[in-house]
Design brief:
rod-shaped, two-stranded parallel ribbon, 138 residues, transcription regulation, single chain, two-stranded antiparallel sheet, alpha+beta, 2 domains, Arc Repressor Mutant, subunit A
């Protein structure tokens, strides 16, 4: 983890602060406790201050660690929300949907749902042709 950027170190910091445990943070992140320890040490070297009080059985934030937690929590929440919203975009249909609709269906079926389609799937472009279609579906 020593090659991680500061945002990765802050993610580790948040997990240790949340669990008050290097091992639980490591389990949550899917890394080793040693990797968590290295990330915290790197962050502490960067700010030149200890962020945690450590004993063999207890981890707690220093005043500086508490300050950092209070300062970064709103930003991390905003980043998390943005990432969640972006992941929703990937699950929505995009592209062009071409439809040929009979006039009666267009007026009574399609028109009422058109606003919901546009709102629910903003990445979907609709190409609608309203025409009399006579087809033999035998």
């Amino acid at each position: 983890m020593s090659r991680l950027d500061p945002l990765d170190h802050l993610s580790v910091f948040l997990e240790v602060a949340r669990f008050k445990s290097f091992r639980a943070a490591a389990d949550s992140l899917g890394v080793t406790p040693g990797a968590v320890s290295q990330a915290i040490a790197s962050l502490e070297r960067r700010v030149e201050l200890p962020l945690f009080h450590r004993t063999t059985r207890h981890v707690s934030l220093t005043d500086e660690g508490q300050f950092l937690l209070q300062q970064i929590s709103p930003a991390i929440d905003t980043i998390g929300s943005a990432l969640e919203e972006l992941s929703q975009w990937s699950r929505q249909p995009t592209g062009t949907l071409r439809l040929i609709i009979e006039p009666v269906a267009a007026k009574h079926v399609f028109e009422p749902v058109l606003p919901m389609l546009r709102e629910g799937w903003p990445g979907l472009r609709l190409d609608v042709t309203v025409a009399e279609v006579h087809s033999n579906f035998a």
